[in-house]
Specification:
Helices cover about 40% and strands about 15% of the residues. About 45% of the residues are buried. It contains 10 helices and 10 strands. The mean pLDDT is about 100. The chain has one domain: TIM Barrel (Alpha-Beta Barrel), CATH 3.20.20. The protein has an 8-stranded parallel β-sheet with strand order 3-4-5-6-7-8-9-10. With about 280 residues, it is of the alpha/beta class. The chain binds NADPH dihydro-nicotinamide-adenine-dinucleotide phosphate (NDP). NADPH dihydro-nicotinamide-adenine-dinucleotide phosphate binds next to helix 9.
Length: about 280
Amino acid sequence: MTTVPVLKLNNGVEMPQLGFGVFQVPPPETKAAVATALKAGYRSIDTATAYGNEAAVGDALAESGIARDELFITTKLWNSDQGYDTTLRAFDASLAALGLDRLDLYLIHWPLPRRGKYFSSWKALEKLYADGLVRAIGVSNFQPSHLRRLFDEGTVIPAVNQIELHPYLVQRELRAFDAEHGIATEAWSPLAKGGDLLREPAVTQVAERLGRTPAQVVLRWHLQLGNVVIPKSVTPARVAENLDVFGFTLTDADVAALSALDRGGRTGPDPDTFDLV
Ligand code: NDP
């Protein structure tokens, strides 16, 4: 079975560099999808309160028989739960839904800068971390201005910043900012949602040369940049394909060719203006 390499986070906790995302997997399908991923060898699962499928993820974990300390489970604080007390309550509800007594990584899902609550939410995450209820705390969709506020007024540096990142949105500055501050960058929608990117000649030519699939080439690009990746698929053959990315290497020229696809192309909202609760 594939062993996924781990990255050491800034507090020494080890996180698998490749995990399984479950955004938009309907709850009734989630248990089977996660079970397929765990059987294939994934050990890191990325869910969120907003996905509505934490309980189904928990069911798959419980039935897997895999030891808790081999798993790395991430969930996220939803926007409407931001604030100190509400964050603590939301965390309890997530743990209960997942059927766990401790989480590996808890993230603030979006900064919602206009609402001004991400810092009080972060203080709650710091408390959960101090209390030993979560092994690492981090953020998602944070820009440097949001992170600087945590550095200035908080006591814990986020371990992870989970951001939209793929060859259409290479995020050079934000990745460099994260790295400079010891924050691991985790790529969401690493395949740009499996659309045009996988038909780009720059991707398909490398795939043909290496006898790999376009998705594998894109995932390899992420891994070689040092990103954590969490591709999602409900198709068992793709679940296996996306994990089978540790037996080949892209050349520096291949990596550069994929990076040259950058066009600032977001598939999701802009974190500076997104304000949905
Ligand atoms: P991905 O970039 O992972 O793409 C998923 C899509 O690509 C699905 O339609 C899937 O189809 C298809 N696909 C997967 N593997 C392959 C393959 N090998 N070949 C061809 N097509 C493939 O997009 P997501 O948006 O799901 O992002 C991944 C994860 O990131 C999410 O599940 C979630 O955990 C996280 N995320 C976090 C966000 C945040 O704000 N923090 C926002 C969005 C996502 P199919 O399933 O039909 O096989």
